[in-house]
């Protein structure tokens, strides 16, 4: 028997038009977009399917992306393709928890809308920045940053790709030092905050209040948390982990390694783009990975899995 993981991307993978063919070809998907839009009082069709200025704003991105990922998942699971474990990068973890059974799809969408607003409002505009550091060992990066203030690691994406975060001036200074330490490239990211840094701890406190209103359910399958890169099987741990996650490093590289070591032999990345598939291939070139970003991809996965 194969062990299947569903993977969900984070902010930065969003694009205009994402999920439109699912909406047009599946009543299950269309229903979720409608319900999400009604609940949030947002025009989800415009936000997700048409060129607009809101999609790249954190307070809108998160709800749009999680709605799209869950709409795609509905179609995939209706075809008989189900995961044994899930994981998501940053906000993608909310989709992973919903699919694992920890809370409903609508709770996931409601929570990430609130989370996006809290993250966007956590610091003044222009205060923070993030930067991808390429081709430099994580231990070297950790050593350089340990001698600096206001800059930390945000994401362990894959070998050779680490993202740093913090106060803008500190991130820019760190980028210079990391280039001197041997990084092939330091690339400033087009984001509007110092995400996954201690500067977002207050947002985590506010998120905790929101999580107290959530109706959690027993997990049907485990998910892997960004905070520890370990499996969560008890949903009572989830609220605290999500509060920590907002200001802690995302250990996605370690999460993928854990799943490979635990016997996962098929990975399905669900959502726009192929970012997570690229990370996985950097860890294990032989990994069996599939992408569902277009409606036609569902049939390809169905045929590959012989279901």
What's the short story on this structure?
This protein is an alpha/beta fold and 307 residues long.
Q: Give the biggest beta sheet.
A: 6 strands, mixed
Query: Span between N and C termini?
Result: 13 Å
**CATH level-3 fold name of the largest domain:** Malonyl-Coenzyme A Acyl Carrier Protein, domain 2
Q: How would you sum up the global shape?
A: globular
Strand order, sheet with most strands? 8-7-2-1-10-11
Give the radius of gyration: 18 Å
CATH superfamily of the largest domain: Malonyl-Coenzyme A Acyl Carrier Protein, domain 2
What fraction, in percent, of the residue positions are helical?
Answer: 40-55%
**CATH C-level of the largest domain:** Alpha Beta
Topology as H/E string?
Answer: EHHHHEHHEHEEHEHEEHEHEHEH
Instruction: Name the poorly predicted regions.
Output: none
List the SSEs and their pairings.
Blueprint: E1 4-8, H1 20-25, H2 27-40, H3 44-49, H4 58-78, E2 85-88, H5 92-100, H6 105-120, E3 128-134, H7 138-146, E4 151-158, E5 161-167, H8 168-180, E6 185-188, H9 201-211, E7 223-224, E8 231-232, H10 238-245, E9 250-251, H11 252-261, E10 266-270, H12 275-283, E11 289-292, H13 295-305
Parallel strand pairs: 1-2, 1-10, 2-7, 4-9, 10-11
Antiparallel strand pairs: 3-5, 3-6, 4-5, 7-8
